[in-house]
Amino acid sequence: MGATYPILAFWYFHLPNFVLAALMYTLLGRVLLGLIVGPDSQNYIWRFFCRITDPVVALVAAVTPKAAAPVIVWLFGVVWLFWLRVGLLYLFLALGALPRTN
Known about the structure:
mainly alpha, 68% helix, elongated
């Protein structure tokens, strides 16, 4: 484990990965919070979660059947964001743009 590297040296991977992770976990928080509060709640935390994740939900809802409940669309969004993160990691590993441990 002697190989260390500064995180800023690989910002081009870490920044998009962080944004995708933040969206994924915020959407997961929206799912969990949606079980407690109503969809028209004026709770500031609920409104924040909705405002941040609405663009992702809109993209997922465009390809999800209209009969699906909103919570199902949100869960599909979590899964899609997870696989985007995996794909990003695989892409950077295939390009040799990430450090490898010996």
